[in-house]
Amino acid sequence: MRRFAYCKVVLATSLVWVMLDMFILLYFSECNKCDDKKERGLPGRDGGPRDGPGEGGKPVVIPKENQEKMKEMFKINQFNLMASEMIALNRTLPDVRLEGCKNKLYPDNLPRTSVVIVFHNEAWSTLLRTVHSVIDRSPHTLLEEIVLVDDASERDFLKRPLEQYVRRLEIPVRVVRMEQRSGLIRARLKGASLSTGQVITFLDAHCECTIGWLEPLLARIKQDKTVVCPIIDVISDDTFEYMAGSDMTYGGFNWKLNFRWYPVPQREMDRRKGDRTLPVRTPTMAGGLFSIDRDYFQEIGTYDAGMDIWGGENLEISFRIWQCGGTLEIVTCSHVGHVFRKATPYTFPGGTGQIINKNNRRLAEVWMDEFKNFFYIISPGVTKVDYGDITSRSALRQKLQCKPFSWYLENVYPDSQIPRHYYSLGEVFSYTANKEIRTDDLCLDVSKLNGPVMMLKCHHLKGNQLWEYDPVKLTLIHVNSNQCLDKASEEDSQVPSVRDCTHTRFQQWLLRNVTLPEVF
Ligand SMILES: *[C@@H]1O[C@H](CO)[C@@H](O)[C@H](O)[C@H]1NC(C)=O
Ligand SMILES: *[C@@H]1O[C@H](CO)[C@@H](O)[C@H](O)[C@H]1NC(C)=O
């Protein structure tokens, strides 16, 4: 039963993991066949009958006879391009907001925003559906412009045809080109620097904004130093069905510094007195979609330009906002849909792993103080990565007098997977102040007397996950069973077990803090 529940947890976490990784990777939709003369994604349907394919956010079903062609086209962008091309660029979407959001009133002196969208080899239909949804569902008085930053796409229709198309739209749309492939971070910085609105709203290139998405974001930006994200709804990569995201999850991260969604904790529900239409304070942002005041973006140091391509930049800006006196929120009355992909055809010289390791090391070194060791412990090899020069980022932290990472864990993210207080952090596990033996979100658990121990999802209810360390006898006693953690295990199994305490050397454990070499 318990194993079954555990499997479900593991399954659910890995699903979320895959979704998120795809979300972060989505930017790198690389065209496999860019010189294929039959380039896909050329102008789709401009508008159509209200009962047309995909209207109301409904799924598109491809008839059997076209399935082969559909599969071929799928490879181009790693989503169902055939379905996307059938859907009107200005299709209707359901109003997925909470009832309490629908008649909220906002001040009429809201700041105006520029919308910055970076794309690389994006399909025509998804890119333009993003643009149309922004224009159709935003009050034009609040829209300064849309800036499309082309990160060196290789498709002809994204050159002059795109420029000609956007010229006739009711809102100024600028197309800016990167001279060479630069990655999300640098392309966004370029777009931001060329935009003029008081607020900068970053979107990905395959989004759809729903009714009322913009006003609640801008209303929160009027609060000093507040950075806001919408709820990210899911647009199916298979059918382009529109599915509402939850207002009950917020952003966190694990020991590997992977962004993850977690349930909004009770304390955050209590702070809002149970009103789910009020913005949620979130420890981190997913990264793709957010709005920020232009001056504040400058003041807190935009992005770390020493980071390559993408990865880690969302946690970096999240830590920076909180530690340096700002607030990061998910505005639950704002919904923007996003195509989540299952795979990316993109490859990068040296491998994406190296880039993410480098970026993550920069963020760990600059922002996480001694807690960076939790990341280093669980990511062997990461300490060998050259992370470049971080002097200017450390100087920024100094200049802004940002608070320590322990403050962030204490005040912003107490439910973090990283224990705020711990007795030891060793090569394998940490022994926390709550007396758990733990690695990431897994805790050492006992389900059978005299039997092997195992790692299960931490429940923080003590119970079978409570261990008492005796620093003199060096024993780890499983309190519930009064048995000792024992290195001897069943034949040919490497797993330690619990046994009656004998105080032999098989039951002695030396808990200490690892010392990581100073210079890597
Ligand atoms: C979509 O665009 C078409 C053609 O431009 C127009 O006729 C139609 O009314 C639009 N639909 C909506 C819902 O705005
Ligand atoms: C390990 O480090 C933590 C955090 O700095 C500290 O509280 C703890 O006392 C240390 N433990 C040992 C055994 O030195």
Automatic annotation (TrEMBL):
Q: Name one Pfam family in it.
A: Glycos_transf_2
| Ranges annotated as biased composition (Basic and acidic residues) | 38-53
Cellular component (GO) terms are: extracellular region; Golgi cisterna membrane; Golgi membrane
Query: Which InterPro entries does its entry note?
Result: GalNAc-T, Glyco_trans_2-like, Nucleotide-diphossugar_trans, Ricin_B-like_lectins, Ricin_B_lectin
Q: Which residues cross the membrane?
A: 9-28
The entry's keywords: Disulfide bond, Glycoprotein, Glycosyltransferase, Golgi apparatus, Lectin, Manganese, Membrane, Metal-binding, Secreted, Signal-anchor, Transferase, Transmembrane, Transmembrane helix
Instruction: Please name the pathway.
Output: Protein modification; protein glycosylation
- CDD domains attached here? pp-GalNAc-T
Q: Which GO terms describe its molecular function?
A: carbohydrate binding; metal ion binding; polypeptide N-acetylgalactosaminyltransferase activity
The protein depicted here goes by the name: Polypeptide N-acetylgalactosaminyltransferase
